[in-house]
Amino acid sequence: MTEASQRPNLRKRSSVFADADYSFTVMLLGDSCTGKTCLLIRFKDGTFLNNNFISTVGIDYRNKLVQIDQSKVKLQIWDTAGQERFRSVTSSYYRDADALLLVFDVTSRQSFENIRSWLSQIKEHAKESVQLTIVGNKSDLSGQRKVKIEEGRQLAASYSIPYIETSAKTGHNVDLAFNDLARRLVSSFTGSKVVMERILLRVLWFTMILKIISISQRHIFLGWVEPFSTIGAILHLLGTLATILCP
């Protein structure tokens, strides 16, 4: 595909998001392998990755326009790495988030037990007005379930946080989880209609640096950076840049 043939797509994408009445930043949090990236791709593109992807390195980005009653709402959705080594990096962005989806895997007892730890970090770093939803993902794997529905509900209720179970594989409740969050954001918003996009460049540069280091195979020196050496990775990085510069 030529450069010229790609330009109309960028213009079209820009015009779509220019009509947004509201713009909010949403972050996906939770342990690694809970399906955060799959939830995001299911919501954004309506597809399931089925493990054909590389684990999130640092932070990734997508956006989507949703209709909430009479308003068009732009959701800037940040997908964060759940590994412990990235916690100090991702927590620095909590304060800029308008909403957080805290995800655990219903087939992983440990990811559920770690929800309280995540909530402690959120309390420490996020702003008081942040909207929260606890998400029990992989609900389609009923035969492998390690966390009962009622346990998830009880935990969420103890923190006065909404709870929902989803399946990125089947799409069950995925749109509902994001749209409910968007509705609550609109209902609670008291400022000007379009929110300032506060963290785009900061996170963009962090992601670019991290991935370029990976692509150049310097993971051997750094130790904790995973290899990311494909042409597809470079194209994805450029696509992320285009998305942010031409939202």
UniProtKB/TrEMBL annotation:
Pfam families: Ras (PF00071). Keywords: GTP-binding, Lipoprotein, Nucleotide-binding, Prenylation. One of its GO terms (molecular function) is GTP binding. Transmembrane segments: none annotated. This is Uncharacterized protein. The keyword Kinase does not apply. CDD domains: Rab. Belongs to the small GTPase superfamily. Rab family.
